[in-house]
Amino acid sequence: MRKVIIFGVVIGLISLFSFSCFAQEAKVQKAKVRQLSLARSIEIGLKNNLDLKQAGYNLNLAQTEYEEAKVNNLLKTSIISLKNAELSLKKAKDSFEEKKKQVTLVEIPNKYFEVLKAMRKVEIEQISVKQAKENLQMVKNKFSLGDANELDVMQAEIGLSLSQLNLNQAKDNFITAKMNFNYALGLPADTPVELTDSFSFEPLQISLEESIKKALQNRYEIRQAQDEVELAKLNLSLKQNQYTSEIEQKKAEINLKMKEANLEELNQKIPIEITTSFLDLKEKGKNVEISKNKEKEKEESYKIAQAQYKAGLITTTSLLNSQIDLTQAKIDALEALFNYNLTKNQFIKALGGELKKNEEK
């Protein structure tokens, strides 16, 4: 008997120690959770993003090749070769800066918002499960009173099962969204994070005309095309002499016309692109408002449906459909807000950079 008591005490101590270790480990794990604002996330991403690092290596390579071209130019002078090297270096710098803008204005904000969206969807599905449980209980109560049949109970049980399935899928998507977010920041995929910012509906205060003007001023494609035109002009001027064949001069003239045509094409295509993006952003903004109003309408409809079902005025199917419609309306409103912010980020990127504060609100 005593051995049994001693054994029990030992087991109890081991269990207590195990629980203490587990609690301590959980506390440590919780302490390791990184709380990140969007600004802090961008700061981390600019240091660790793998694609940006690759762009940096390409820039370093272009810088080295330019230094090599300068040395070669001392041995064998060639203005065009040196200018080509300068242009290649400038393109590499532009490419690096564009990647920084992509990471800063689009990639990391979008991944950040995806995590927030996935988290909010989990919350919506949790509410849906709670409502499905309440509906099932109402149906069972009616069934016990003889006011509902077995098919009604079965429908409510199936509705609950589907809600639970949707919740599990939402949780899985939340895990995946956090992994993709960590990858964008250059962090280990399993790094626990907690996001401190949110995304909301904040329309841009900038006109279409201002948007087009800003894009034509800031887009790197325009700068590169202008540089290529200047290089082509230089190349043509150097070939316009009695020592260069007419064919070579003709080729230089054609090359200049091609570069000028490319610049003209960009000056025409970019306004079309900006106009399309501008109108698309406005449409998505309207959809945010419409979907939000629809969500409110479905909330009221569901409240009414619950009261009507309790009074015996509608069927079980009508009640369950009303609850499903409400959940879908919440998800649609969330998607609309998410899509607006993604489109907004891409639009700002298309303008060539960040907007002034008065243009963002």
Molecular structure report:
The chain has 10 helices and 2 strands; from the N terminus they run H-E-H-H-H-H-E-H-H-H-H-H. It is mostly helical and 361 residues long. The protein has 2 domains: 35-190, Up-down Bundle (Outer membrane efflux proteins (OEP)); 205-361, Outer membrane efflux proteins (OEP). The longest helix is centred in the N-terminal third of the chain and has 66 residues, at 79-144. The protein starts with a helix and ends with a helix. The model is unreliable at 1-31 (pLDDT under 50).
Domains, number: 2
Q: Which structural class matches the secondary elements? A: mainly alpha
Q: For the largest sheet, list the strands in their spatial order.
A: 1-2
Helices and strands, in N-to-C order?
HEHHHHEHHHHH
Radius of gyration computed on alpha carbons: 31 Å
CATH architectural grouping of the largest domain = Up-down Bundle
Contiguous low-pLDDT stretches (5 residues minimum) are 1-31
Under the CATH scheme, which class of the largest domain? Mainly Alpha
Q: CATH superfamily name of the largest domain?
A: Outer membrane efflux proteins (OEP)
The amount of helix comes to over 70%
Instruction: Give the biggest beta sheet.
Output: 2 strands, parallel
| Count, helices | 10
